[in-house]
Design brief:
The chain is built from eleven helices and four strands, in the order ααβαβαααβαβαααα. By secondary structure, the chain is of the alpha+beta class. It is globular.
């Protein structure tokens, strides 16, 4: 007789308050596993740490060939006073060097930027960029939406934005100084990012349920949205 999987020791019994959490956890694990074709060993976790480690490996378990560009530099600016002017210059393409200007209040953890950057590099490597540049692709990848304009508006610079993350691939030694001349704000150690994040705005933007935060961190939930956008 076939064994009822709902009664195994790994799954709560029907009627248990933990059953709903169990089903959601299994669903999230299934979606992430299918979104990322990575080597899976035993009961390997699907959180941010596991995803980040597995991004560098292919299905055979061997390390992938390095993608180019090969580095990402990130700067954090607080108390920004000229967000409106910055937005106009970005739209006009007047800023050099090119970079991704990101609303810091929408980023709960620096890992989110790393994940978006990896997705952008992978699309660039495969010739499948959705946007017109590598840096705008990074910004687009932060969203759980497939709508480019909506994503850039929600996560990019907007009028009144007081904190910014600026990310650039393969930055030259003087790029940081050049970017600092554009932004009228205080250059802050990247460790201060968590104090800039707006958890409530992030949860609303990604439609994150309270139950998800019982299973992992806010960054975990955001990674799940980003990774399963194309599913």
């Amino acid at each position: 007789m076939q064994r009822n999987l709902l009664h195994t020791k790994h799954c709560p019994r029907p009627g248990s308050r933990k059953l709903k959490s169990y089903k959601l956890r299994k669903l999230v694990s299934h979606l992430i596993f299918n979104a990322w074709p990575v080597l899976r060993v035993g009961r390997q976790a699907c959180g941010t740490k596991a995803i980040y480690q597995d991004l560098l490996r292919d299905c055979s378990g061997k390390r992938k060939q390095p993608l180019t560009p090969g580095s990402l530099s990130v700067w954090l600016f607080c108390d920004v006073q000229n967000s409106r002017e910055l937005r106009e210059q970005i739209v006009e393409g007047a800023l050099e060097p090119e970079a991704a200007f990101i609303k810091a209040s929408m980023v709960p953890d620096l890992f989110i930027i790393r994940l978006a950057a990896y997705q952008a590099l992978l699309a660039h490597h495969n010739g499948s960029l959705t946007t017109r540049s590598l840096h705008s692709e990074l910004l687009f990848n932060l969203s759980g939406s497939k709508h480019i304009a909506e994503s850039l508006k929600k996560f990019g610079v907007s009028e009144g934005c007081s904190s910014l993350l600026v990310a650039r691939f393969d930055a030259a030694s003087n790029d940081g100084d050049q970017i600092a001349t554009y932004v009228q704000g205080n250059l802050t150690p990247i460790s201060g990012l968590s104090s800039c994040a707006d958890p409530q705005a992030i949860k609303e933007a990604y439609k994150i349920l309270p139950l998800e935060l019982e299973l992992g961190s806010l960054a975990d939930a955001v990674c799940g949205r980003m990774s399963t956008r194309s599913c």
